[in-house]
Amino acid sequence: MNLALLEYRDDDAQYAALALRWSDLDVEKKTLKVERALEYTKKIGLRFKGPKHDRHKRTIKIDDELISVLLKEREKHLRIAAGIPDGVEVDLALLRLPSDSLMFPRMPERGTLSFSTPRHPNIVTKLFGKRAQRLGFKDLRLHDLRGTFETHLLDQGVAVHVVAERCGHHPAVLLENYAKRRPSADQHAAAVAGR
């Protein structure tokens, strides 16, 4: 899924996906703005931060499937904000969420949902690890999804500079860290060279 492209780094538990706000989504243009990340460090704690480099601040095109998933999630948030239970037919077009509402806010343990309170990156990492292990992926880390997806895009012929721009990488960094040499890619190269 396209959200795998969003910046995540193990070293400082930084996530761009957890910092996405509903105001970052443009359904008409089918785009998502990536302008900030959520970071946790022992020294500072949990905070939103801007990108280190301008290339990390970007607007990416997203597919219809992801838009559909996000719109369903936003509908859930609108229903929660208005106190409308699932299954009750109502026009949600007049409802608005607060401007700083996150797409993936922290789920309340009890009480009401605060749409602007972020999920903790370390908790997301742990939950992902547990679920991946239950599915039989013992050593799969959340960060591995990003590299796998980038490699897949490259294998499918998406230009290096396009993948790098979508991911907020310099092309050299993308190739050094994420482009994995695979036998199928080598076979394709041999076929092209033969032609």
Overview of the structural elements:
The structure is a single chain. The chain is of the alpha+beta class and 195 residues long. It folds into 2 domains: 1-107 and 115-139, hpI Integrase, Chain A (Orthogonal Bundle); 141-195, no CATH class. It is 38% helix and 12% strand. It contains 6 helices and 7 strands; from the N terminus they run E-E-E-E-E-E-E-H-H-H-H-H-H. The protein has a 4-stranded antiparallel β-sheet with strand order 1-2-5-6. It has a 3-stranded antiparallel β-sheet with strand order 3-4-7, with no helix packed on it. Helix 4 (160-167) packs across helix 5 (171-177). It is globular. The protein starts with 7 loop residues before the first strand and ends with a helix. 16% of the residues are buried.
Report a brief summary of the structure:
By secondary structure, the protein is of the alpha+beta class. Helix content is 38%, strand content 12%. The protein has 2 domains: 1-107 and 115-139, Orthogonal Bundle (hpI Integrase, Chain A); 141-195, no CATH class.
Average pLDDT score: 84
Specify the CATH homologous superfamily of the largest domain: Intergrase catalytic core
Strand tally: 7
Percent of residues in β-strands: 5-15%
Share in helix: 25-40%
**Tally of separate domains:** 2
Per-chain topology:
Blueprint: E1 8-9, E2 14-15, E3 25-26, E4 31-34, E5 37-41, E6 45-49, E7 58-61, H1 64-82, H2 121-134, H3 142-155, H4 160-167, H5 171-177, H6 183-194
Antiparallel strand pairs: 1-2, 2-5, 3-4, 4-7, 5-6
Helix pairs in contact: 4-5
